[in-house]
Amino acid sequence: MTAARYQKIQAILAKRQADLTVLAEHIYKPHNLSAMLRSCDAVGIGTVHAVDPTGGVPTYNETSASAHKWVNLHVHDSSQAALEHVRNQNMQVLAAHLSDEAVSYLDIDYTRPTCIVMGNERDGISEAVARYADAHIIVPMVGMVQSLNVSVATAVIVFEAQRQRRAKGMYDQPQLPAEVRQAQAFRWLQPKQAARCDEAGVAYPELDDDGDIVWETLTETP
What we know:
222 residues, Alpha/beta knot, 7-stranded parallel beta sheet, 7 strands, 15% strand
């Protein structure tokens, strides 16, 4: 382990936006889900939600640039379960949906706790989600095509969210508690040891400034 890698991970976790997320509803093309995760990681979204991704278990490919290693994907059995989960975190629910009530994605305040729901290119979001959402948003188009690829649309929207949040200084101070950041850093840097600790039900040991395990802080050897 190198100190530089450990410090980079700490810097990344310090900018994670705990109250900003994306819900991928029935995104059945693995490369789209992979690309969505990549964009989310790029703007500091640490957790993405999904409903029934390909085969029930996400499949990743080279387009993700290993983003699935750095973004937690929370898979739900239903859209209702996913929406209840984010609503319990007091998030506004914005559905990317072409409707008579839809507004430009630029007219939304993303500095509020926010969940952005994206549907697949064939069917869009479900009617249940459309009814549940606080607002419908679109990316205005001035060409012949009506919409963007879902992964591209996701990138456009989340980077606007990043722009607004940066302007408000929301990346300047960590949103995640120190113990949460440290635990996530341990899982990334020491995945095998983290799995052993989880299996044994013991707390993770501390990491030194180089990201190496301080063994004497391990409460019980897994």
